[in-house]
Amino acid sequence: MLGGTNLPRVGGYNQAVVLDAIRTRGPISRVELAALSGLTNQTVSNVVRKLLDAGLVTETGQAPSSGGKRRTLLAPRPDGAYALGVHLDPDAAVIVLVNLAGEVLTSRRLRLSVPSEPADVVDRVARAALRLAERSAVDPGRLLGLGIAAPGPIDGSSGAVVSPPNLPGWDRVPLLKMFAEATDMPVALDNDATAAAIGERWIGGEARAGSFLFIYLGTGIGAGIVLNNTVLHGDSGNAGEFGHLAVEPGDRVCHCGGTGCLGPYCSPAAIIDDLLRLHGRAAADRIGLTGDPASLHGDWKVLRRAARTGDEDACDVVRSAARRIGQAARGAVSLLDVSRVVLGGEGLRGIEPIVREEIDTAVNSTSVARAIRPIAIEQSVIGDTVGAVGAASLVLHGNYTPGWRMLTDPSG
Amino acid sequence: MLGGTNLPRVGGYNQAVVLDAIRTRGPISRVELAALSGLTNQTVSNVVRKLLDAGLVTETGQAPSSGGKRRTLLAPRPDGAYALGVHLDPDAAVIVLVNLAGEVLTSRRLRLSVPSEPADVVDRVARAALRLAERSAVDPGRLLGLGIAAPGPIDGSSGAVVSPPNLPGWDRVPLLKMFAEATDMPVALDNDATAAAIGERWIGGEARAGSFLFIYLGTGIGAGIVLNNTVLHGDSGNAGEFGHLAVEPGDRVCHCGGTGCLGPYCSPAAIIDDLLRLHGRAAADRIGLTGDPASLHGDWKVLRRAARTGDEDACDVVRSAARRIGQAARGAVSLLDVSRVVLGGEGLRGIEPIVREEIDTAVNSTSVARAIRPIAIEQSVIGDTVGAVGAASLVLHGNYTPGWRMLTDPSG
DNA sequence: TCAGCTAAATCCAATTGATGGATGAAGTCA
DNA sequence: TGACTTCATCCATCAATTGGATTTAGCTGA
């Protein structure tokens, strides 16, 4: 049920609106903020004073006069707030410390052994994160919390990961609670693709305002959906399951049991398999693939590099996977009517041009929306660390975004 | 850019929240409203008084005591507000007059000749609508406006229909403006599927609270998306394009140019064609199909009736179309993470069981969400007139729903 | 150089709507 | 009949926005 509102909440909301506008529209004056938000000059003045007092924005110089008193420009203060972000992946955890401007201050990569024990992983990661914050000497009072981006399905209500296909043995692990206890900080948890989308929205400024579909290529494929500046979480907290969109069916059975799913055609393992099947052992040897499932991560890296340097066979298998991704993207775009698709994730490194091109072709040559305006296909503005930065953004976003309540441990 | 808020708006918002709660939760007491909305008893009391004064709700009896004073129950007052709704279709326009409770007071069906002249159609429909309102003797001051549900793409910013595939010659017709001038009332315009979804949300009460996907079978196929009690319009006002989701590809080229689209496999014309192709002229004769494209509407009706009465060939072609719809629905459901799919539209009459069954199979046997909870597949609570009632709901919804601005003619 | 003008930002009184605590109203139960 | 509950409202207070007046700061032209 939709909740009612009261005055303090209105105040907080308007503060969030103004801060968001200052963050995304760069240095901006009070009058412009008033015009943008529809609030009175007076109100903007009041709100800005509070933000100044809170240390979240600063006055940075003045704009040239337009006939009268010059406007004083306001900009976000990077050291106004900080957040820690963790991206959990089967073989490594990436931890970052991010400031209000979205800049990564320090980062650390923790190799994880597969399979790994949840309690052990949480313990190691939490300690590493706390150490990172300590050494960076940020004001502890301005460290807002820890965000976690986890692969696979999440139970939104309990804050647990639900048997992610890539983390064997992690069934119903209450990550939210575990990290809250280990760090004694507010903790936010989300699906990696959704976290990445929030990160783009938070860091991307005007280029990521409004609505977009974020396609995330990590160990699997997923999507984050931002509609009208708000992330879609879905009834069970799992919106954006991209791997189960229907595409041209083949013989492969998805782990969900279906045969028409996108998922089994564009995972690293599947693409490597394609190469071996279609182009033979010789091609694999030339490229340098071991073909050993245990060294999947390395093989995938090698294959991507081969594709980037133009190896025909590598390009071929990547392209046919990308074509299917394009089909799915076309459907998603026309269903959601977004005019922007953003690509990201470390699994994309090296093959962006191919994937971008295929999605562009699929989306812009046939979609109905094309008649109205072309759909932009762009790369993440954050880059390789979207997952971790996105996780940190969960916290910042949760604290400073209008109309958004953080998915956090009630006890914390 | 996200707008700021002010006190009058808060007041309006809370009034809308409370009215919405009274509408959806049937007869309900003030205390329950307070608990539901998170507002104070005091505030609810104030808000309710305003709603009573405005004539939008009434006190209807009292609940049995639970140990103290009995709660007085509040219910929406059907005669509190009215709206006209028009569903434009290639061969007919359905006009309804709806009250605040969502009851259809009067309705009228206007046969349209194909092809038809936009100006002429608007003129006839507008006059019929006005006459309907006049004869029903509703208080003109409580008639809030006219809603239009039009097939095919809409240009949200200009309020025009953009070359709907089923209305030849209707390219960029500014329906919003034309109807506003013809009726001198506030006018709202939306895609038929989206309008139908809003209608379900408005009429359906608790059964349609939260999020759902509405699959609309009219002359074509479309979907309306409701997420967290809010309709998704999309960047260009065309969210829910369901016909361009990818499914098992065949040889048919969609009017968008693609080959993997759902659309060309589940239109009435396509299904009739299937029957002729797969089961021959003999089957068509047995069922009673003319096969003449000019009598498409009639043929489609006949075919549906045959399917309902169990004709094997008819069931076969309907089922294979339904199977594809199921594939698309599965993708949409996992992407949006909704836990309810609603079916409606007059093109569904007679074949609901088959379509329902196929979607159920596709969605609930393979979706990931299934692991968490089954997805409900239900029929429209409104029935055949969803289109028109939905159109009327556009107006009611626009006036009385929290956080929603009506897509209306700025001049009106 | 100074008065006149313009635009930005702030001060002040008024208004609106929610809140918490106290009070009245209506019933139940022993 | 009296004690207790629950519902609903009254009253003073508080928080936030608004509109108009005022101050601050820079531009312009005689």
From TrEMBL, chains A, B:
InterPro entries found in the cross-reference section: ATPase_NBD (IPR043129), HTH_CRP (IPR012318), HTH_MarR-typ (IPR000835), ROK (IPR000600), ROK_cs (IPR049874), WH-like_DNA-bd_sf (IPR036388), WH_DNA-bd_sf (IPR036390)
UniProt feature coiled coil, ranges: none
Source lineage: Bacteria, Bacillati, Actinomycetota, Actinomycetes, Kitasatosporales
Organism this protein belongs to: Streptomyces spongiae
Residue span(s) of domain HTH crp-type: 20-75
Family: Belongs to the ROK (NagC/XylR) family.
Stated name of the protein: ROK family transcriptional regulator
PROSITE patterns reported in the protein's UniProt record: ROK
SMART domains hit by this protein: HTH_CRP
Any matching Pfam family: ROK
Residues of the signal peptide: none
Molecular functions (GO terms): DNA binding; DNA-binding transcription factor activity
